[in-house]
Amino acid sequence: MSDLSDVREGMDVFDASGEKVGTVKSVKFGDPQATTAEGQTFEREPNIVQAVATALSGQTDLPEERRERLLRLGYVEVDGKGFGNNFFEGSDAVKRVSGNTVYLNHSS
C-alpha cells in the first residue's frame, strides 16, 4: 500500500503494464475508524471523512461494501480515458508515486 500524501490532482495514472489509464481527479485520505459510508449525521461543519462519505455515497454504481472499504483505506479517483469513465482505486492499489505519475499495482 502506498502513502497517498504525494498524490495530487492532475497527475498521470499508469497501470502495471505501463499503459496510461487516466489522470487523478481527486484524492481522499482514509479513516481506519470509518465503519459505514452512509447514515452519519453531523452537527458541525463537515470534515474530510464526512466529505468522503458524502462523495462516495453519491456513487450509486459502487457497492456499499466497496465504498466503506475505500473510506477506510483512502482512495484516488481517476478520470479515465473517454467520457464517463471515472473510477476509484484504493490506496492499496497504488504501487508507487514518482514525479508527476501514479503507478498502480495491477493492469486494466
List the helices and strands and how they pair.
Blueprint: E1 12-14, E2 20-29, H1 48-57, H2 64-73, E3 74-80, E4 87-90, E5 94-98, E6 101-104
Parallel strand pairs: 1-6
Antiparallel strand pairs: 1-2, 2-3, 3-4, 5-6
Q: How would you sum up the major sheet?
A: 6 strands, mixed
Number of strands: 6
In whole angstroms, how far apart are the ends? 18 Å
The Cα radius of gyration reads 14 Å
**Low-confidence spans:** 39-46
Fraction of residues in H or I helices: 10-25%
Along the chain, the helix and strand elements come as EEHHEEEE
Tell the overall outline. Answer: globular
**Helix-and-strand structural type:** alpha+beta
If helices are DSSP runs of H or I spanning 4 or more residues, what is the number of helices?
A: 2
**Strand order in space, largest sheet:** 4-3-2-1-6-5
Q: Provide the β-strand percentage band.
A: 25-35%
Mean pLDDT: 81
How would you explain this protein's 3D organization?
With 108 residues, this protein is of the alpha+beta class. Helix content is 19%, strand content 31%. The protein has 2 helices and 6 strands; from the N terminus they run ββααββββ. It has a 6-stranded mixed β-sheet with strand order 4-3-2-1-6-5. β5 (94-98) and β6 form a beta hairpin.
